[in-house]
Structures are given as C-alpha cells and as structure tokens.
Amino acid sequence: MSVLAGKTALITGSTQGLGLAAATQFKAAGCRIIDNGFADGKYVGANLRDPAQIEAMIKAAGPIDILINNAVVRHSALIENFGTDQWDEAVAVNLSAAFHTIRLSLPAMKERGWGRILNVSSIYGQRGAANRVGYVTTKTALIGLTRAVALEIVGSGVTCNAVCPGTTETPVHEAAIQALMTTGGLSRGAAERAFMAGKQPTGRIIAADDVAQLMVFLCGPASGDINGSIVPIDAAWSAG
C-alpha cells in the first residue's frame, strides 16, 4: 500500500526541477497532487507574489494534508547593485508565500489532527554566499519560520520541517554547466568539475529524486516525531 494513499499534497513551484521531482515522488507514494506554477499542463497558476491569489489557491484546493513550500526565484548581484524590485520579489516568493500558505493551511490540519509542512531551504540557508543576498536571506529566514511554526504545533499531529539541499540537478544549474561548456570550451566533465568547485565534497550534483524521496519520508507515517528539524542533504558540505 502506498505510504501516503489518500493524502492531498500542494507543491509550490512544481513545474520543473526539484518541485517536479517532488510531485512525481509524492504521486508515486499515493498522494493527490496539486501543482503550482506557470507552465503548459495542469497547474494552479497562482502568482505567489500576491497573497490574495495564494488564498484563492488554498481555498480551491480543499483540505491540504501535505504542504511543500518549494517555489523560489534567484537573482545574482552585489548588494549595491541588487534591485529593490528583485529584493521584493525574492522576499515575496521565497519567504512570504510560505508564511501565507502555512497560515491558511494549518487550521484545517489541526482540526483533522494530522498534517505535514515542509519548507525547502538550501545549503545557503546555513551559510553565506556572495552576490546572492536575496536568496541567502530568504532561505535563512525559512529556517526560522520552520522552527517557530514547529513550536506552535507541538502535540497537534502536524509537523513542520525544512530540507536544505546542496547543489541539486535543476534547470538553473544545468544552464550554468552548459554556459561553462560554451564559453570556456570545456568538456561536460570539466564543466561540472568547475561548477562544483568549493561545493559539496563529493564533487557530484545531488539527484533531485533523492531529495524528493527524503521529502516523502519526512511527510510519511514514520515522521511524526520529526518536528522543527532542519535536514541537510548536501554530501557533508555543511559539515565542513
């Protein structure tokens, strides 16, 4: 029997990359999936910059058992060149959207006595990086949000945790590797090694499916006592 049979999971930012891998794995575990994003196909196209659209999405979805806050935007620039629009967008999509989905989904979870909330942070929620002030700040704040919510829901049957992936296979990272191959005339292997320099000690990109399977476990029946945890999947990058 599928471990999450009959559960409804809302996964934000699930049109590609880790979100798409999560949707695939949660569906395999028996979940009814509500995808969010902007792409061809059956997605709820709520703009996560807009609290009203988030609220409409939650209402339309019906009771949500599992909430995966995965949506993200990335901008790169020195802080003095980081646009205010870019900052506002990063805070809205990467952080405020998670606040809104949690506050709107949690009452029904509490009422039913079961629920799983999982926030997708990052290795950069645990350490800094230059030229990425919006991403680092919001991913760090997601960890604080996770801990605060976890303490409020102790004993309710609901849990709130975060995962912190290292460098994972995503379209963004694939594009960076392709750019190194094109501009630097590098082979695929050499481009991957250059891209991974200073990142996880294995030098390998983490499979999105591996992260997604960890997410399924943290939302499964054996995870009831895992609450407020910040779980790295970064091949010991954060251990160094």
Task: Write out key terms for the chains shown.
single chain; 240 residues; alpha/beta; Rossmann fold; six-stranded parallel sheet; 6 strands
What is the CATH class designation of the largest domain?
Answer: Alpha Beta
Portion of residues within helices: 40-55%
Class from helix and strand fractions: alpha/beta
Major beta sheet summary: 6 strands, parallel
Count the strands? 6
Mean pLDDT: 94
The CATH homologous superfamily of the largest domain is termed NAD(P)-binding Rossmann-like Domain
Q: State the domain count.
A: 2
- Largest beta sheet: what is the strand line-up? 2-1-3-4-5-6
Binned strand content: 5-15%
State the CATH architecture of the largest domain. Answer: 3-Layer(aba) Sandwich
Helix and strand run: EHEHEHEHEHHHE
According to CATH, the fold-level topology of the largest domain is Rossmann fold
Number of helices: 7
**Alpha carbon gyration radius:** 18 Å
Low-pLDDT runs of 5+ residues are none
Choose one word for the global shape. Answer: globular
What's the short story on this structure?
Helix content is 44%, strand content 12%. The protein is α/β, with parallel strands linked by helices and 240 residues long.
